[in-house]
Amino acid sequence: TAAGITQAQSMAAGLRDVLREAGAVLACSPMKRALRTAQALAEALSAPVLVQPDMFEVGGIYGKRRDDGKGFHEASGFTPKELKSEFAFADTSLLPPEGPWNAGIGKESVADTRARTLRATQWLRSKATHDMVRRHAGGDKSDPRLVVVLHSDLIDLIMKTVLAQATEVDQVPWNQFQVITDNTSVSELLVPVEGADARPTLEYV
């Protein structure tokens, strides 16, 4: 919406200087509404946005309920080519090279969502991701940042997984508390690299 675009542009303007100073890397959900929010950051920083295929909203993209009542019809997301056509700033290197990013997913079950949340969190913790952020920031940056544009329900699940330092689905306190975030709000979460002797820290929501 027009209001959403205005909110995103205001958020990007407020963060531009600190993110430039940190040499921040931008990442995003593959869903349209998140990409439109990320576009404001991409334009403010003149930077690409890495599309992360596990960062889509809880439930995914799906069609109408089937006539027999057993589940929902599938609905397709972008192919990499379609995504690049509409969002030129998008780096699609993590997506499947052919076909829609959500091929065969349909409406997620709770179990599938939780497994995906763990994968997404493992990506955030991985040495490869931390090294990528540091390379992008340059060796002189003491506090490099990864900025991820996400959806509120997934933010809740990822924060629970990170703060619990969970490595298995059954270690996450899925229903014990809830993190609520508003549109274009900013949260800061310290995610230690895998194997590090450090605790995750939630700076603010």
Label this structure with key terms.
single chain, alpha/beta, two-stranded antiparallel sheet, 6 helices, 8 strands
Produce the secondary structure layout:
Elements: H1 2-22, E1 25-28, H2 32-45, E2 49-51, E3 62-65, E4 72-74, H3 80-86, E5 90-91, H4 110-125, H5 127-137, E6 146-149, H6 152-163, E7 188-190, E8 201-204
Parallel strand pairs: 1-2, 1-6, 2-5
Antiparallel strand pairs: 3-4, 7-8
Helix pairs in contact: 1-2, 4-6
What does this structure look like?
The chain has six helices and eight strands, in the order αβαβββαβααβαββ. It is α/β, with parallel strands linked by helices and 205 residues long. It has a four-stranded parallel sheet. A hairpin with a 6-residue loop joins β3 and β4. The model has no long low-confidence stretch (mean pLDDT 91).
Strand content: 5-15%
Strand arrangement, largest sheet? 5-2-1-6
Weakly predicted, low-confidence segments: none
What's the end-to-end separation, in Å?
24 Å
H/E element sequence: HEHEEEHEHHEHEE
Helix content: 25-40%
How many extended strands? 8
Average of per-residue pLDDT values: 91
Q: Biggest β-sheet, characterized?
A: 4 strands, parallel
Task: Note the quaternary state here.
Answer: single chain
Number of helices: 6
